[in-house]
C-alpha cells in the first residue's frame, strides 16, 4: 500500500475501541494493585506542577485535593472504572468516550502532580481517545492516518533529540544510566538474578554501548514510516523492544505508550481479527 | 503535527504536546551514585519484583522532590523560576497562590506513613529515610556513606 493512501479503518472502529479499552482496563487494575489510583494517594501535600498551564489551573482550582480527599476520591475512582468498562460493552457512544477522556485527563494530571514527576507517556491514552471521538467514518480514517504519522514522528524525534542533546555521541551513556537507575535495586537485592544481570552489562561496556546504540537506531527506524507502510509490523515490534529494554535497564515503564502501536496495525490484520472474533462469538455464544 | 513540531522546537512539554526527549541529554561520568533507602518497623522498603515499578515509584519520585523542597525552604525549582517573573503581581503573593504556595515538607513523613500502611498492609510504628552514596567496584556496590535524613515516629 502506498504511504499516501488513507486506510479504510472505519469498519473496524468498534474492534479498535474495544481492544484499546480492554488494555486501559488492564492498566486500571494494575494501577489499583500498585496503589496509585486517586483514592489510594492519601491526599499528599507535596506537588510538582512544572510550567504546564493546565496543571497550574487544576492546582489553582484545588481539583487535585478534591479528587484525592477521603470522600470524593472513591467516587472519582469508581467513575473512572465505569467509564473504562462501558466502551467495551458499547463502543459507539461518543459521549461516554468524551467523559472518559476528561476523567482520564484529570487522573493523569492529579497523579503526575503528586508523583512530583510528569510522566508524559500517560497522555498516549488521551491521544488515542481523540481519534475515537470523531463521528464520521471519513474523519476517523483521516485522524487515524494522521496518528500513524504522528507516532512515526514521536519516535523519530526521540532519535533527533539524542543527536541535538548529545546522548547519541556519549559512548558511556548506557553504562551511566544503568549505574544511576539501578543502584537502589542492586543495594537492596545484591544477590538477585537481576543484580548479576546489571553487573554483567556494567562489566561489558562495549556490549552495553552497542545495545544502547541499537535502541537509538530502532527509534531512527521510524523515519521509514513516512515513506512506506510495508514495515509497520517491524515498527510495532520496535515499540515493544524499545520500551521493554528501557524498562529492564532504566526502571521507567512506558506501558501506556506501547498501546500507540495499535495505530500501526494494518486493515488486513484488523479484518482477520474481526473474522476470527465473529467466528469465536458464533461458536461460543451462537451469536 | 505543526503545533507538536513547534512545541518540540520550544521544548514545551505541556499538554497536549508530546516532546519525547527523555534520555537525550548526556550524563555525567561519575564513580559515585546516590539514592534513598526507606526503613520502617525495622524492615527495608524493598519491592524486588522488577516488573512492580508502579508500587515503588511514589516513594522514589517524591523523596527526591522532598529533598529539593527541604533545601529551598518549601519551594520547588519551577516555583523558584516563576517567582521572579511574577514578583510585580501582588495578588499571587498576597493570597499565597502558585508559585508562592508553600510546600510543607514537614508533613511528608506523616503522609508517607499513611500511604505505606496501605501498600504494606501493616501498621507502621516509625520510618527512617537514608541517603546512600555508593560506588561500583567490580561486582559489588560499595556503600561510601549512609546518612539518615528523616526519622518519624508514628504515635
Give a written overview of the molecule.
The complex is a heterodimer of chains A (287) and B (155). Chain A has a domain at 9-133. In chain A, helix 1 (13-33) runs antiparallel to helix 4. The model of chain A has no long low-confidence stretch (mean pLDDT 91). Chain A contains 13 helices and no strands. Chain A has helices at residues 13-33, 53-60, 63-68, 72-89, 94-115, 123-133, 137-165, 173-188, 193-203, 205-220, 232-250, 255-258, 267-285. Chain B is α+β, with helices and mostly antiparallel strands and 155 residues long. Chain B has one domain (2-153). Chain B has 5 helices and 4 strands. In chain B, strands 2-1-3-4 form a 4-stranded antiparallel beta sheet. The longest helix of chain B has 19 residues, at 53-71. The radius of gyration of chain B is 20 Å and the shape is globular. The N and C termini of chain B lie far apart (55 Å). The mean pLDDT of chain B is 89. Classes of the chains: A mainly alpha (287), B alpha+beta (155). Chains A and B meet through helix 1, helix 2, helix 5, helix 6 and helix 7 of A and helix 1, strand 1, helix 2, helix 3 and helix 5 of B.
Order of helices and strands of chain B: HEEHHHHEE
Give the N-terminus to C-terminus distance of chain B in angstroms. 55 Å
Order of helices and strands of chain A: HHHHHHHHHHHHH
Supply Rg of chain A. 21 Å
Mean pLDDT metric of chain B: 89
State the gist of this model.
The complex is a heterodimer of chains A (287) and B (155). Chain A is 70% helix and 0% strand.
Task: Outline the fold blueprint.
The complex is a heterodimer of chains A (287) and B (155).
Chain A: H1 13-33, H2 53-60, H3 63-68, H4 72-89, H5 94-115, H6 123-133, H7 137-165, H8 173-188, H9 193-203, H10 205-220, H11 232-250, H12 255-258, H13 267-285
Chain B: H1 2-10, E1 32-40, E2 43-44, H2 53-71, H3 77-86, H4 90-94, H5 108-120, E3 126-137, E4 140-153
Antiparallel strand pairs in B: 1-2, 1-3, 3-4
Amino acid at each position: 500500500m502506498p504511504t499516501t493512501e488513507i486506510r479504510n479503518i472505519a469498519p473496524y472502529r468498534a474492534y479498535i475501541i474495544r481492544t484499546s479499552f480492554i488494555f486501559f482496563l488492564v492498566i486500571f487494575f494494575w494501577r489499583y494493585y500498585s496503589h496509585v489510583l486517586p483514592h489510594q494517594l492519601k491526599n499528599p501535600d507535596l506537588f510538582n506542577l512544572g510550567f504546564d498551564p493546565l496543571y497550574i489551573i487544576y492546582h489553582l482550582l484545588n481539583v487535585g485535593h478534591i479528587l484525592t480527599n477521603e470522600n470524593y476520591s472513591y467516587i472519582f475512582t469508581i467513575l473512572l472504572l465505569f467509564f473504562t468498562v462501558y466502551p467495551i460493552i458499547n463502543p459507539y457512544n461518543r459521549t461516554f468516550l468524551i467523559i472518559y477522556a476528561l476523567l482520564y485527563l484529570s487522573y493523569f494530571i492529579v497523579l503526575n502532580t503528586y508523583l512530583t514527576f510528569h510522566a508524559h507517556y500517560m497522555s498516549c491514552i488521551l491521544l488515542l481517545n481523540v481519534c475515537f471521538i470523531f463521528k464520521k467514518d471519513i474523519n476517523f480514517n483521516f485522524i487515524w492516518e494522521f496518528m500513524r504519522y504522528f507516532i512515526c514522528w514521536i519516535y523519530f524525534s526521540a532519535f533527533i533529540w539524542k543527536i541535538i542533546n548529545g546522548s547519541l555521541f556519549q559512548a558511556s551513556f548506557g553504562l551511566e544510566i544503568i549505574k544511576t537507575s539501578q543502584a537502589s535495586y542492586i543495594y537492596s537485592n545484591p544477590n538477585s538474578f537481576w543484580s548479576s544481570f546489571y553487573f554483567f552489562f556494567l562489566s561489558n561496556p562495549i556490549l552495553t554501548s552497542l545495545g544502547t546504540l541499537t535502541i537509538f537506531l530502532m527509534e531512527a527506524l521510524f523515519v521509514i514510516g513516512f515513506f512506506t507502510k510495508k514495515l509497520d509490523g517491524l515498527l510495532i515490534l520496535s515499540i515493544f523492544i524499545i520500551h521493554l529494554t528501557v524498562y529492564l535497564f532504566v526502571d521507567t515503564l512506558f506501558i501506556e505508550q506501547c498501546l500507540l502501536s495499535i495505530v500501526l496495525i494494518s486493515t488486513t490484520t484488523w479484518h482477520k481479527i474481526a473474522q476470527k472474533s465473529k467466528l469465536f462469538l458464533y461458536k461460543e455464544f451462537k451469536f | 503535527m505543526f503545533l507538536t513540531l513547534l512545541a518540540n522546537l520550544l521544548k514545551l512539554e505541556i499538554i497536549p504536546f508530546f516532546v519525547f526527549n527523555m534520555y537525550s541529554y548526556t550524563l555525567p561520568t561519575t564513580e559515585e551514585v546516590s539514592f534513598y533507602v526507606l526503613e520502617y518497623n525495622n524492615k527495608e522498603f524493598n519491592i524486588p519484583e522488577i516488573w512492580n515499578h508502579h508500587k515503588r515509584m511514589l516513594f522514589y519520585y517524591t523523596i527526591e522532590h522532598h529533598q529539593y523542597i527541604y533545601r529551598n525552604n518549601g519551594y520547588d525549582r519551577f516555583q523558584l523560576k516563576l517567582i521572579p517573573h511574577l514578583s510585580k503581581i501582588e495578588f499571587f503573593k498576597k493570597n499565597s497562590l502558585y508559585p508562592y504556595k508553600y510546600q510543607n515538607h514537614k508533613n511528608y513523613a506523616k503522609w508517607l506513613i499513611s500511604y505505606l500502611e496501605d501498600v504494606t498492609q501493616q501498621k507502621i510504628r516509625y520510618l527512617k529515610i537514608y541517603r546512600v552514596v555508593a560506588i561500583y567496584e567490580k561486582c559489588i556496590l560499595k556503600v561510601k556513606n549512609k546518612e539518615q535524613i528523616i526519622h518519624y515516629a508514628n504515635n
